[in-house]
Amino acid sequence: MDPPSSSITFASSSSYLSNGSSPCSLPPGAPPAAEGWGGASGVDGASLARLSTNLERLLLDPDLDCSDADVDMADGGPPVPVHRCILAARSPFFYDLVRGTRRPGDGLLLSAAISGGGGGGDGAGSRRPRYKMEELVPGARVGREAFLEFTRYLYTGRLRPAPHDVVACADHACPHDSCPPAIRFAVELMYAAWTFKIPDLVAVFQRRLLNFVDKTLAEDVLPILQVAFHCELSEVLNKCVQRIARSDLDSVSLDKELPPEVAEEIKKIREKSPPDDGDPIIPDPVHEKRIRRIHRALDSDDVELVKLLLNESDITLDDAYALHYAAAYCDSKVVSELLEMELASLNLKNRRGYTSLHLAAMRREPAIIMRLLSKGAVASQLTNDGRLASNICRRLTRLKDYNTKMEQGQESNKDRMCIEILEREMMRNPMIVEDSVTSPLLADDLQMKLAYLENRVSLARFFFPAEAKVAMHIAQADIIPEVGGVSAASTSGKLKEVDLNETPVIQNKRLRSRADALMKTVELGRRYFPNCSQVLDKILEENMSDGFDVFHQQNGTPDEQKVKKMRLGELKEDVRKAYSKDTADNSVYSVLSSNSSSSPPQMAAKK
């Protein structure tokens, strides 16, 4: 008996996913076109759609629990119930697992298949099989949301839009099309699709990962490269290698994060094609060897050996970026011991422009962040591309984790804790302006932020112009020239062209001034109009991908224009209700008006 074919698929899935609109989604009402069916007729398509919907009830109906196995997730939460017959029918991996067969060379011990009657045992009582995700996917991580989305696909043959709070980060200025949570979700689904042998999903997410590579930061490409190496995705792997070879990612990061053969290949490419920006750095072999010895001592948690190595040579902790290394890779105890030596510069930037606090923020370890801050690390120090440690944390944190409310006595989410620690420190010690932030890389990042902020402020002006005008006046956004604002009535989603004769330094200062003013405007809106701000969040999430088509009332057929008019009316009603909530107990506008009577410089100083 041959293993079953992997899937019912939908023809438009891969092209839709590859356009960057969602890490895991299909256009609504996509027609089914099952592999091997030669293009289903209308009757066949309707039958398949009904079958898909009926099978989905097994997952959604709480009163219909006929599952016969559980999958324990690494997060320690409740197990995910599954139906072995459906998994076995859809996935060759689960087909072999349920039959109780093991192919030579798999090297996979599945305790559930042995102790739980993985081959045909009954599902009652203690005989109900329980599978552990870390055994099903060894050496990889498939999170709860990714596995739930994967099983939904197996049951229904359809991919739905990914939950927004799972693929969006906690940074309100991020467009969320290529932020780390979106990448992690796609990576986890790729691990699941490859391990459980669903080739159509592998193809879909291969295109999605390829789309991420050139849109995100170099350090965020690393998990894509890792999954490409593990899942033998040669096209994705080659693109990641070339991307990282062109980046400023240091050799230490390559050695720590990547398979040895891949790290070596990247180094060889760099030797053949040195960077264009300035003279290539020629390393001193003896110097590099001493630094590696210090790093190995830190890996062994042996700070005493570090002291001996420092005494034996003229290498300093700063030369080795030892505090940076410890903040990124070592236990918090090692970081504390290094700080007690008082030989490392707390706010020293490495070659990539990161301080040890920036690296601790990337790691999202509260104990290390608090220790660095207690010793004098500056939370307001910016990276070369204009990010704060708190910004880094927010970009790495899923919106779902940030918004999760903890019950009394429940352990707090570490990611949110890091953000709160850093932002409290920022409030205690206001930002120090750094004149050195003039990297041309900053312009690209600001263009994305400005597109979002201009859209948001334009929407605010469209729905409540008087209040938005006051907020913009306080933030001085009304006196700083726009760089391509988009009106809510005619949104293009693009910024105006910039002056080609403008130097990168002047351009960055201009873009930064506008972004700061717009950010202050948004912050004022969140402070005084929290409910309205939530409605704006929702409008932006739902309409940015289609270029705010709902506001283009004159476009489309008469029927489409009618639908748009109705939708715009619904949006206005949502805003009206939110505004009523905001103004029910206090006169917000009067507060803003009284604040606006202060001179803008004084307001800025108070901030």
UniProtKB/TrEMBL annotation:
Keywords: ANK repeat, Metal-binding, Nucleus, Plant defense, Repeat, Ubl conjugation pathway, Zinc, Zinc-finger
First-listed, main subcellular location of the protein, grouped into a coarse class: nucleus
Pathway in which the depicted protein is active: Protein modification; protein ubiquitination
GO molecular function, one term: zinc ion binding
ANK repeats: 352-384
BTB domain location: 69-163
Subcellular location: Nucleus
Disordered: annotated span: 1-38, 586-607
Domain of life: Eukaryota
TM regions (residue ranges): none
GO cellular component: nucleus
Listed Low complexity bias regions: 1-24, 586-599
GO BP of this protein: defense response to bacterium; defense response to fungus; regulation of jasmonic acid mediated signaling pathway; regulation of salicylic acid mediated signaling pathway; systemic acquired resistance, salicylic acid mediated signaling pathway
A Pfam family annotated for this UniProt entry: NPR1_like_C
SMART domains reported in the protein's UniProt record: ANK, BTB
Family per record: Belongs to the plant 'ANKYRIN-BTB/POZ' family. 'NPR1-like' subfamily.
Entry protein name: BTB domain-containing protein
Taxonomic lineage: Eukaryota, Viridiplantae, Streptophyta, Embryophyta, Tracheophyta
